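Today's session is about reading a structure prediction critically. Students often jump straight to the picture, but the first step is always the sequence itself: look for stretches that repeat, for charged clusters, for runs of hydrophobic residues. Only then move on to the predicted structure, which in these notes is written as discrete structure tokens rather than atom positions. Here is the chain we will use throughout the hour.
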Amino acid sequence: MDVATEDGCQEAVPTGCWYCDGKPGAECSDVVGDGDGDPTGDGDGEPTGDGDGDGDGDPMACMGDEDCSGPDAPFCDIESGVCVDCEGTADPDASCAGADPSTPVCEGATCVQCTADIQSACTGTTPICDVAGNVCVGCSEHEQCSDSACNIAEGNCFDPTNVVHVNGNNGVVCIAADGSEALPYCEVGAAILNAPNESIVVIHELVGSAAYQEDIAVTGTLAFFAANGETPILAGFNANPAVTVAVPGTLYMRGIQISLSAAPGFRVNGSAWVEDSLIINNPGGGIVLASGGTLMLENCFVGGNVTDVDAVTITDGTATILYSTLAGGAAASRALVCADESDVTVRNSLIVSRQVDDEMSCPNVTASDSAFEMNVPGNTSLGMMPDTSWFVSYQNADFHLVPGMYPAAIDTAGSWSTDDPTDDIDGDPRPNTVGAPDFAGADRIP
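Below is the predicted structure for this chain, in token form.
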């Protein structure tokens, strides 16, 4: 290190930033120079300059990060005495984290929130790294949350330790149930009673396609997921729906079948995201959305061979119906009916009914890229369904398409968009190309 003289200057001109503590002296200068023969530091050899010592293109001189205010070079490299970007520091990530814990990663000379390899800053309601923008965002689908579920309404992933199992086949040990896979609860209601909020309830199917006969009320935030490779069935009890999502409850449901309910099988007063599920052949009707609730229906079969009840009824709320097949029964059975004040969007879906009248009565619906029997502008009109031969078994509410029997226009009625499901209800891949024609409805022929 150079030794300072009595007048405050050092014996030798140091590299980088230097000064004389304001003391006078011929060999001292109160302007930082860059050695080019002019006192301005502008690198042009002229006596005039901007006086900021940054060389007008030369690196800014510094003694600490506080001297570096430029957005492109906010860090001071002590060894060289010049301001640099994060990649110019000894420890780029540590420099970024020290400057701002919310952007702890150095990527491309800039401090960012995250990269594909480093996502430590992505927590809470922004647990996912959007690699394209290097920013943390909320989750939007369950696959983004490893061994967990996405709370789509809030953006956070459920705690992966909050998992409880339901398996009514294991009745012998019901009294000892703790929700583990080895000692599952025997009823869904028991699981809800004992599970913490934001839990995943894994439901196993019963032997012989029997149904869990319960009237389940969801008042918190939960996920009902079918056990891998299984299709559990829920049925209403005491003339109540099988599942009611109350205000302010939120339910994420995947792979569940709701059938044989004397009341509507599924009632939503709160919020529900339903994927890859079957709400079929419920004598009291399929789905009712009311009380200002919210419903997202994706890759689902809804309706069936029931008489004088509607597949989906929306009295008050906001609904998005995407890539789903809605099928009304005979007599006065519509596939979709909604009140004037409802906010309903239908896209890439197949809407039919066995009744003679129109299958949909929804005055303010926004429908696109879907297939109807009736004429709905901007969509595909199939004409009246002559019988039930389009589907594998209308009687059993199996709405898979029969090759060669359904109208070929269904094949291209839909149009795949970003954030649409990548597979159909059976896991068969969709086009996954924006604007590509696709089948309308939950089922597509591979």
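Discussion point for the tutorial: Confidence is low (pLDDT under 50) at residues 1-5, 16-55.
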